[in-house]
Amino acid sequence: MQHNKKLILASQSKSRLKILTDAGLDITVQKPKINEESLKNSFLDQGIYFQKLAESLAEVKAQKISEENPEAYVIGGDQILLCSEHMFSKADDVKDAREHLRFFRGQSHHLITSIALLKAGQLIWSFTDIPELTMRAFSDEFLEDYLSKNAEAIKNAVGCYYLEEAGIQFFDKIEGDFYSILGLPLLPLLAKLRELEVIKT
Questions:
Q1: Which of the 8 DSSP states describes residue 199?
Q2: Which residue of the set 22, 26, 78, 145 is catalytic?
Q3: Which of 17, 13, 18, 51 has its CA nearest to residue 129?
Q4: What angle separates helix 36-45 from helix 50-68, to the nearest 10 degrees?
């Protein structure tokens, strides 16, 4: 499918890797060696918020890996959850996840999902999508049952849910691209890779 152009995913996200490999891309993974929370706080201290923050984090995650692999196209990604003007990071533990999900209950939140494509350390393309998801007024009993059975989603997903798994039961309404919700706006990325002749047209 590819034209002998190396493609690297600069991410620890299993969801992003699965999206790309399921789409037929031959891609390698190099995890960015950054302290994401420290970097996020640094950007916030500079007055960078929400969409620009997600875009900046996506780019920085790919930057060093791109510089070390100048022949490759490197994809970085980031996702920020915004609910009632509050920004949420991944939960630290079950207690934290419980508090997050109780806050989201009965409300809409946005997933600011950004990707950046770099080559030889230079940003050549970026894209941001912002799906909106509305949680139903689920019971405490449902919440506790979910928390007891979904440790990986609680720990690794910014919203403490995987939409493609049991997390779908939290929702009344979803507006936006499914792949963006999972963490990677796939169709715009594929279109750009075809334009660059990284994959077949």
A1: B
A2: 78
A3: 51
A4: 130
pLDDT at 140 over 80: yes
Q: Which phi-psi region, left, alpha or beta, contains residue 117 (left: φ > 0; alpha: ψ -120 to 50)? A: beta
**Residues counted in the chain:** 201
Asked if residue 2 has pLDDT above 60, the reply is: no
Give this prediction's pTM. Answer: 0.91
- Separation CA 71–CA 133 (nearest Å): 38
Nearest-5° angle of CA 188, CA 190, CA 165? 80
Residue position matching structure tokens 């152009």: 5
Q: Which residue has the tokens 């630290």?
A: 92
Residue 1 has pLDDT above 80, yes or no: no
Q: Tokens 């912002």 map to which residue?
A: 130
State in words which class domain 7-195 has: alpha beta
Which residues face 119 on adjacent strands? 73, 122
Structure tokens at 50: 């929400």
**Is there a contact between 50 and 67 (Cβ–Cβ < 8 Å)?**
no
State which amino acid sits at residue 104: F
Q: What is the pLDDT of residues 142-170, one digit of tens each?
A: 999 999 999 999 999 999 999 999 999 99
Q: Tell me how many degrees the CA angle 137-143-149 measures, rounded to the nearest 5.
A: 145
78 annotated active-site:
yes
